[in-house]
Sequence to fold (506 residues):
Amino acid sequence: MTAVLEASIVEQLVAAIAPVLGEANVLTSKTARYSRARVPAPFPVHRWAERVPDLVVLPGSTEEVAHVVRVANEFGVPIVPRDGGTGLTDGAVPERRGIVVDVKRMNLIHEIDLENRTATVGVGISMLKLNEVLAQHGLIYPDNPASYPCSLVGGRIGTSGWSLIGSRYGHSRDLVLSFDMVTPTGDIIFVGDGGGRKISKSSSGYQLKHLFMGHQGTLGIATTATLKLYPKAEAEFSAFWAFDDYDVAYKAVGALARAGIATFAGAVLFDEKKVEYLRRDDEAYIPQPESVKALVCSVGYGNSDEVAAGGRRMMRIARDLGARYMGDEISQGDWASRHDRYATPVHGRTLSGQVALMSWHCEDAAINYTDLPAVTREWHAIVEKLRRKHDVFDDWGMFAYTSSDTGVDYLTEIDIGIWEEKLDDTTWAAFVDAKREIAAVSLKYGGSISACHGSCREGEVDLVPQELGGGYDVMLAVKRALDPNNIMNPGKYGLDRAYDNEGDRR
Ligand SMILES: Cc1cc2nc3c(=O)[nH]c(=O)nc-3n(C[C@H](O)[C@H](O)[C@H](O)COP(=O)(O)OP(=O)(O)OC[C@H]3O[C@@H](n4cnc5c(N)ncnc54)[C@H](O)[C@@H]3O)c2cc1C
Fold:
């Protein structure tokens, strides 16, 4: 645990920062600090106080962010970038305390370029708010996570986020064209595809945009971003089908993803445990007969005539495999509620059937289509072992969701219900072990530990060097070169070892 900063240091930090940001934007109250201490991923309640920042700042511009970062370097105090605070791998958690840089005030739309189809925004804006304005121009910024209303553009950059309709429009890395950012030493740089703000493909120089996305705030703070816009779709197709057999549903999701339908935006497979969980605990779910063992959903977006034709083909593919269409009400309603289904915490049932205030943790990975059944079996076995030992965990089932338009790899998630209030050191250690085992299975099958959230949390993070091999050494070298004082979100991704004298990561 990192020590609380002495009051006199906090005072000096405030004195150095407030004249530039304004006193109202430098916060030291308990409320301001505690409300930025955690993210929705469950963590033992008795340990929450370990990760509270000493100071919160609300910069309003790139220059103000740079000022804060320079001050942090001068004092050797950790800095943690935070946007919506919805990240599920603890990226925005101030594990070493220090200064949380909350970028939500930078939420302006600076430009909408109707001809080149771009928007330039402050990173504190949500996709929901941006799209309300873009809709007036018939446009959309189609980064569409389940956290759509509450995650913000800066966090999407920090995590290199995954979008529910990414098989049609791409994910955050494809949709963010360029951004201004403040490096860990307080310099202001611009990164994109080459040097142009609105360029989607350049071969000039290193592809730095990708380096500065998904780093979980360890390499700097993005401030203003230029985003790629699409015409707002004239039509949406969404269909849910029920299956009496997981294997047939698995075939169907693969067939839908591989069909080459231009409007195809994604297909998702819910396994038997997920169907059981929905039946048991999700009040919004319309219960299906016990014979239903798996569900598949497929969606399409685009111009009306194209969506209609693509939808007909998807219906035919599913029908030919024996799928039962669940009807328009469920299909359209369930898809429409995709951003609302994960309210946390939610109620749930423990293994002994007791109704409890359960939080939800999703363990995610990128898995190839061919390995989904085996990974599904092995992950459930790990969670089953965990829940048999400890009545504070529950298996809320799995889903696998296409990441691309060819169906090569799937964002694969197992949702674990956790009675967070009851987490103690023993159950937390057991959970961390389970996370490590889950990550090990993903690597065994040639997958990646995370398709969506990042892999910084206890347990999974131990396996990142194994996943990346020599690439992890490059990460260490980059971190050391760009952040000589290790102030930018220290402790994440095990990057402290970049500063070990021996330089030995194992
Ligand atoms: C209900 C729910 C559903 C979710 N569904 C999805 C989903 O479908 N797809 C998906 O990808 N994720 C999903 N997530 C996870 C989360 O929403 C994403 O990781 C999101 O990208 C985080 O954005 P944020 O604004 O909340 O970022 P934060 O949580 O504030 O930060 C995330 C990371 O980015 C860093 N960061 C924040 N701002 C900046 C910045 N300006 N510059 C550099 N780094 C920065 C932080 O330090 C942290 O490491 C879900 C989460 C919840 C709670």
Q: What stands out?
A: The first strand starts at residue 26 and ends at 27. The chain has a mean pLDDT of 94.
